[in-house]
Write a structure and sequence with these properties.
This protein folds into 3 domains: 44 residues, no CATH class; 149 residues, Diaminopimelate Epimerase, Chain A, domain 1, CATH 3.10.310; 71 residues, no CATH class. The two termini are 56 Å apart. Strands 1, 2, 3, 4, 5, 6 and 9 form a 7-stranded mixed beta sheet that branches. It has 10 helices and 9 strands. Strand 2 and strand 3 form a beta hairpin. It is of the alpha+beta class. 45% of the residues lie in helices and 14% in strands.
Amino acid sequence: MTDGSDRVQEALAAYLDFLELGGREPDTSHLTASERSELKDLVDALELTEGVAFGAGSGETASRSLATAVSPEGRLLLEQMREALPPGVRIEADANAGVGQMGGLGVIDRWLVGTFGGRVRVWLLEIDAARLLEDNSEALADLNRVFRMFPDTDAVALVAKDLSCLIVQPQDVAPQISVPSGALVGRRYRRGIQPATEAISAFLDELIPYWDPIPAFDPDAGLRIDATQVSANFVRAAVERQRGIGERARKGNPKKDALLGFGMKEATVLTKLANKLFDGSLQPDEIEERIERLARER
């Protein structure tokens, strides 16, 4: 039987699906009064988190928040993002206007775009083309401070008036140590310039990759795994690896002859041990002692 904690977690998951995808608000009448109170506390706590508010990507709430673009380019970008991004992605006006410029360039319009996998700050800059940002080291230094100010941000999309875009992540704006040379590598743009909607959509796919549905397993399909063959293939490959090490060893190395001595006899014995591990007649902590015993007998 499902206990109260599981019922609350299931109700919370249904409520989050309702906020993300819309539809009818989930029924909580099956919960006890204390469980409904716990569910309310959880929802209130989630709504207090910094960033995109729940449900901000659909319905009237989205229409109001998206109506904040002040420039023609901003209105066009919003329209394109609405068309290009999946329905579950939320687009919210970035109410935090603490950053007025980036690398000496004014921020015209700003939004938060995200899913439960992460969020991107999309900033439209007073610049004609994103390629002009590539030599703007001041923008990277400013972004280093931005990521410290907003640690919940997975990336900042710097968009130019032609709606070309550079996606910048926290690792792009902090000096790093090059391996193996140990040299200090400065800040740099690591991603190429793309149309804004393509760049943002691709980055969100990286945050939450799409997985095909897992097919149902049919217990009556008659599929069987031949454990004996699996163990034989595994042991044969292990023996060949050891023989290969022996072939590469220098002459006079005492291990060379021992490794080259491995063959079908040893593979057969080890396969029997592996089969016993599969059927449970031999425990994993016994295998080392059995192999040592076989080595002494050999």
